[in-house]
Amino acid sequence: MFYSSSKIVTVRVPYAVANATAVKVKVVYNGKFSEESTLLVVTAARGLFSADSSGSGAGAILNADYSLNSEENPVEPGGVVVLYGTGGGVVQAAVSEGTMTMAATPLVSETSVTVNGEPAEVLYAGNAGGLVAGVVQVNISLPKTVSGMVPVVVTTAGVSSQATVTVAVR
């Protein structure tokens, strides 16, 4: 579990449910159980992280020199950036639940990225080394024809991230 409040519970779905079509979930709070809910299991449920954790606006994106991408620190057109998010689905090698990932472990499903609606070259899509299993890193080479604060969308297994996260391009 990552977060909980009176209205929301945020958890990382275990890789162990990858072959299921649905799972049953109950929440326990102060020893009391909620009603059981059935949740569908999908191959991927992409989401990109934003710099302010709102899910929109400037992305939690690093430039190739590992500096934070921003309007004040944009990348050159055609440059490389690192995107971070979640919901990428199963990776190619076994990962222990709740552990830190140290090695690059690519996603099983094909991943594509568009920047301002134009395709970007995906250099790597998989676990983010040094972070908890389930955090996904996508390294891309930006199209040479985009500039400004432009939307970036990651698609894995036909499921796209929100179109509200932006990358700064000079």
Q: How does the helix and strand content classify structurally? A: mainly beta
CATH class of the largest domain: Mainly Beta
For the biggest sheet, the summary is:
10 strands, mixed
Measured as a percent range, the helix fraction is under 10%
Radius of gyration over C-alpha positions, nearest whole angstrom: 17 Å
Distance between the termini: 38 Å
By CATH, the architecture of the largest domain is named: Sandwich
CATH topology assignment of the largest domain:
Immunoglobulin-like
How much beta, percentage-wise? 35-45%
Q: Give the overall silhouette.
A: globular
Number of strands: 16
* Tally of individual domains: 2
- SSE string: EEEEEEEEEEEEEEEE
- Unreliable parts: none
Query: Whole-number average pLDDT?
Result: 92
Number of helices: 0
Can you walk me through this structure?
- By secondary structure, the protein is mainly beta.
- It has two domains: 38 residues, no CATH class; 123 residues, Immunoglobulin-like (Sandwich), CATH 2.60.40.
- Helices cover 0% and strands 39% of the residues.
- It contains no helices and 16 strands.
- The strands form four sheets. Strands 7, 8, 9, 10, 11, 12, 13, 14, 15 and 16 form a ten-stranded mixed β-sheet that branches.
- The model has no long low-confidence stretch (mean pLDDT 92).
